[in-house]
Write a structure and sequence with these properties.
By secondary structure, the chain is an alpha+beta fold. Helix content is 20%, strand content 22%. It starts with 14 loop residues before the first strand and ends in a 9-residue tail after the last helix.
Length: 154
């Protein structure tokens, strides 16, 4: 027989038999603060043969697990926490998206031209580009003579 603790409540109505509390006085001793609430719930006897007992365990008001006594053995069964799963999933998703963004940025194509620099006279130098071709084709005799353009500066 396996006992499963449902945090929203058991589907059946178990008979609740609280454990015998130790003898305490109703008021705390003078100078002592009252005792904090106990994080272990009452002993629940589960129906069926052989009998089993279930003791729910809470932390800060939320169920975190249960101790199950069955056939003379005590086992602790943790409760599935959807908030914890959601937080872990969000963390993994954030790390995955950050890694994908870094990988995408690293795979970006390099620029088509190299560095753009300004020369001393104000001219622009584009490294990595071939020289521009003239608009009109050169005459055959200029190609044969390997003639250069004559540039006159004023």
């Amino acid at each position: 027989m396996t006992a499963i603790l449902n945090p929203t409540g058991p589907p059946f109505a178990p008979s609740v038999r609280p454990a015998d509390p130790p003898a305490r006085s109703a008021t705390p001793a003078p100078g002592r603060p009252p005792a904090p609430p106990v994080a272990v719930g009452p002993v629940l006897e589960l129906p069926g043969t052989p009998t089993a007992a279930l003791v729910p365990v809470t932390h800060r008001g939320r169920p975190v697990g249960a101790f199950v006594l069955h056939d003379g053995r005590v086992r602790y069964r943790p409760v599935f926490d959807p908030d914890r799963l959601l937080g872990a999933t969000a963390g993994v998703l954030a790390v995955g998206l950050a890694a994908a963004a870094v990988a995408a940025r690293g795979r970006r194509r390099p620029p088509a031209i190299g560095a753009l620099t300004m020369g001393p006279g104000g001219w622009v130098s584009l490294k990595g580009l071939p020289a521009p071709t003239p608009r009109a084709p050169r005459p055959w005799w200029a190609r044969v003579l390997r003639a250069r353009r004559l540039v006159i500066e004023h």
